[in-house]
Amino acid sequence: MTQRYDIEKTPEGTWDIIDVFTGLPVVEVGVPLIDMPIEEADDLVELLNCRDREQREDT
Q1: pLDDT 10s digit of each residue in the chain, 59 long?
Q2: CB under 8 Å to 40, separation ≥6 — which residues?
Q3: Could you tell me the pTM of the whole model?
């Protein structure tokens, strides 16, 4: 199964979480998941992909 979310490095050296299906930054509870340190972005993208995988398996 294709992972829906990935991280992308910004020119400033921070990281954004991107929806690979749309190419846009992810917004979670009204907060764009952008300009994060790599550790935070990596942890969040793992959680988002896990949640997405569970939701797609349930349908």
Answers
A1: 789 999 999 999 999 999 999 999 999 999 999 999 999 999 999 999 999 999 999 87
A2: 15
A3: 0.89
